[in-house]
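Supplementary Methods. Inverse-folding protocol.

Structures were first reduced to a discrete structure-token string of length 472. This string, shown here, constituted the complete conditioning input.
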């Protein structure tokens, strides 16, 4: 029996779902920290250029390939470009599979910190407690990690199980407005705080002396990650778009919202950090530290965040919602491949794919001290150095391989497919119609997709190959 292929019920529903995929841990967990590490200002500017010059054109390319063929990643590339291109789609499905396996673990941490901060909101912050220790203990507790990741995986599977309209779109419509509201509230509060001026200056005042080639490439790599590009997620979401919606307008809105939210989240986090004067501690604890060590502590510190103890649990609700609207798009890439290409019914396909991904989530969940084999797993020798930069643990290796290899190579293949192998009439037919906004020019898009984007992406890959730059 073939099932009716789902469609978004409206343009707003689609935009919310795609924006939900883009806004995630990349915005709240990765972007603020890489901005910190690269000294703000100039890095942010380069990132914005990458988003506009590479991210936006590829967003349009992925959505148009999806809408044209009404198929998920593998089938869409086969039909739009040629049978061999199905391999690029497979690469994307594999990338979604691996990314989901470890993304779920960080998402699970938001559940833990929600429970902790909610407890402290009621009972008060325990005197002398060390957030660093709490963090390390929870991440090394294998049973707890498996429980949290399982909880988050079940939530993801439950949404995708109900399909595009009744699952993904419904949840995005409900959660994205809540996410925007929480962020607006935190943003408003941050303006009343002393450190906000310093935070804004750090983020927006460019000083190019601080910038090196590695930062430029890191900004480009993150542009892919944050916009969910390079692995067919937007091809898949695009395949459910109705004919009367403008791909160009939708792409513009999704990219703009994702960028604004990343900047807003960064302003909030830096304001809190500058107000408390905790710059040194943040640099020491790394990416994970900013979101799960410094912030919870600061929410409860005397006189830093007004109403902090009430805002803390709310903040982790925000992280969890942002993560869920991303994990559901990752699972959709894998499940829709099985549904479209192997004719398996959605319910069964979702359970199968969710279960298979969870086997690897177990490895990721135990990567922080929960089990020796997962924590110390590594690939020795030159191959390990090249593909995993000598990283240990399933989590470390998977994150490195996805960010440094899978997304950039997938992204390069997709730009080449759209720019050089698809017929002009096919792409123009999707991008230009009476719904297209006046600012759009097909020729400008074609120039970016044929030359600018592939050259920039090729530069990342060459940098990784020859100069060992790390984007994870
Ligand atoms: N864009 C997500 C984030 O910024 O957290 C990550 C992501 C989700 C990447 C879905 C790719 C994807 F298909």
């Amino acid at each position: 029996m073939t099932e009716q292929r789902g469609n978004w019920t409206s343009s707003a529903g689609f935009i919310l779902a795609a924006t939900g995929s883009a806004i995630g841990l990349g915005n709240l967990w990765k972007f603020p920290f890489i901005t910190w590490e690269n000294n703000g200002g100039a890095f942010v500017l380069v990132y914005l250029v990458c988003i506009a010059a590479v991210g936006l054109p590829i967003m349009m390319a992925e959505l148009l390939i999806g809408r044209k063929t009404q198929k998920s990643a593998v089938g869409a590339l086969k039909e739009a470009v040629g049978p061999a291109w199905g391999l690029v789609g497979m690469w994307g499905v594999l990338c979604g599979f691996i990314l989901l396996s470890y993304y779920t673990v960080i998402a699970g941490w938001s559940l833990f910190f929600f429970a902790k901060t909610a407890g402290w909101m009621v009972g008060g912050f325990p005197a002398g407690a060390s957030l660093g220790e709490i963090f390390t203990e929870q991440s090394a507790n294998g049973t707890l990690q498996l429980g949290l990741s399982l909880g988050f995986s079940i939530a993801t599977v439950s949404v995708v199980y109900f399909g595009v309209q009744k699952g993904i779109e419904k949840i995005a419509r409900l959660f994205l407005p809540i996410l925007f509201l929480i962020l607006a509230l935190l943003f408003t509060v941050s303006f009343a705080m002393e450190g906000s001026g310093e935070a804004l200056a750090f983020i927006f005042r460019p000083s190019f002396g601080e910038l090196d080639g590695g930062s430029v490439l890191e900004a480009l790599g993150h542009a892919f990650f944050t916009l969910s590009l390079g692995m067919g997620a937007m091809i898949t979401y695009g395949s459910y778009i109705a004919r009367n919606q403008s791909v160009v307008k939708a792409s513009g809105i999704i990219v703009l919202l994702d960028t604004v939210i990343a900047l807003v989240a960064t302003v909030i986090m830096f304001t809190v950090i500058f107000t408390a004067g905790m710059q040194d501690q943040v640099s020491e604890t790394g990416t994970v530290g900013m979101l799960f060590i410094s912030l919870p502590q600061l929410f409860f510190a005397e006189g830093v965040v007004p109403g902090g103890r009430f805002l803390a649990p709310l903040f982790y609700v925000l992280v969890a919602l942002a993560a869920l609207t991303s994990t559901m798009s990752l699972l959709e890439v894998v499940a829709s491949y099985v549904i479209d290409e192997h004719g398996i019914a959605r319910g069964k396909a979702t359970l199968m794919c969710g279960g298979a991904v969870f086997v690897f989530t177990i490895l990721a969940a135990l990567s922080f001290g929960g089990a020796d084999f997962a924590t110390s797993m590594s690939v020795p020798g030159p191959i390990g150095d090249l593909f995993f930069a000598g990283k240990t643990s399933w989590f470390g290796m998977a994150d490195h391989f996805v960010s440094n290899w899978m997304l950039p190579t997938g992204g390069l293949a997709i730009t080449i497919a759209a720019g050089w192998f698809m017929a002009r009439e096919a792409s123009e037919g999707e991008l230009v119609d009476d719904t297209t906004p006046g600012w759009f020019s097909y020729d400008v898009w074609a120039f970016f997709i044929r030359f600018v984007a592939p050259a920039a992406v090729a530069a990342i890959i060459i940098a990784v190959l020859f100069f060992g730059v790390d984007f994870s």
